[in-house]
Amino acid sequence: MEIPSKKQVKKAGDTLVKNPKDAKAMEILSQWRSLHAHPVNTFQALLRKKALKIKDAVIAQRLKRTPSIIRKLQRFPNMDLSRMQDIGGVRIIVPKIADVYELHQSLITGRHQHKPVLPPKDYIKNPKEDGYRSLHQVFKYASINKPELNGLQIELQIRTHLQHYWATAVETLGIIEKSSFKTGEGNEEFKHFFKLVSVLFAHSEKKTVLDRYRDTPIKDIISEIVTLERKLQIFTKLKGLIITGKHITATQPKGVYYYLMQLDTSSDTATLSLIPFSEEQLPFAEKTYRLLEIDNIDNPSIELVLMSVNSFKDVKKAYPNYFLDTQKFIDHLQRLIAKSA
What residues does 160 pair with on adjacent strands? Predict the structure, then answer.
């Protein structure tokens, strides 16, 4: 595989900010993103060993979507594509807050060559302004077998199931509304609703809530959540789009290592397609991913991601937003509301 220089990568990123369709810059971006596949695979294998004792842990990996990369470059004028830390990402979803910190500590102090970039970004102790909660730890890949990849950065996200349900609902409503709520776009009332729910979820996990709500009684938070939900009909919106699956089977085909998922919400009946690839087919999978992204770069109804999970059943657990599935978010929120009644 051709390895572009960091200077070429930075230049490509600068070009894509001004012209997201520049063919040469897109090619360099694709090459740079592809380099992260091996470090991500390596780190996922390490993570699986560390998480063996955690019941109901879900692990998934992905290469960051081109539209997300370009949006990030556009949102942060000083961002350098060659130093972007989350092009290669691994996510683990665990049951409890204690699991988050125990796993993180074991990775920081563990016997492996990958260097943690400290301190981590702890959005559980210090939630983002929009209510997002998770722990992010960046590692720099290091290996004597692949020295040409040394220094590439992999972002690990560790979050609880409850934090994952919240993030999934935000992304799903963003898909339905054709607005990227997680990057600050979209209706202010929807965003306010999710801030309030984040406060309620953090309170239920006995963790830090957003500063502006620290002195607000939880019953007042719940009352406002209920009022906004009734006004905006958020549950109805989240459950209202019917999805059909194309090329989706009940079991995982043999030899599958990657899935290219495509969600099409251009009609009232959304369509989800999963294209399977073996580990040896990664170059073809990445090429297919890139070509589909280029074809749909101006189409907000198409969502694409190239990802890998340990088993087929974990696809939906790790990426329920691609299935437009927010039922667990709704169930947990309604349960917490009912407890306060």
Answer: 94
**Residue 185, pLDDT score:** 86
Helix (H) or strand (E) holding 262: strand 258-264
Bridge pairing between strands 242-246 and 269-277: parallel
pTM: 0.92
Q: Is the dihedral of CA 195, 199, 204, 208 positive or negative?
A: positive
Residue 288 to residue 199: CA distance in whole angstroms: 40
Given the structure tokens 């709704």, which residue do they identify?
330
For residue 107, give the nearest of 138, 153, 143, 133 by alpha carbon. 138
Over residues 130-157, the pLDDT tens digits come to 999 999 999 999 999 999 999 999 999 9
Measured between alpha carbons, how far is 21 from 66 in angstroms, rounded to an integer?
A: 11
Cα separation, 44 vs 246, whole angstroms: 28
Residue 124 to residue 179: CA distance in whole angstroms = 25
Q: What distance in Å separates the CA atoms of residue 172 and residue 194, rounded to the nearest whole number?
A: 12
Q: If we measure between CA atoms, which residue out of 43, 28, 56 comes closest to residue 112?
A: 43
Cis peptide before 116 (omega within 30 of 0): no
Angle of the 37-50 helix axis to the 97-109 helix axis, nearest 10: 110
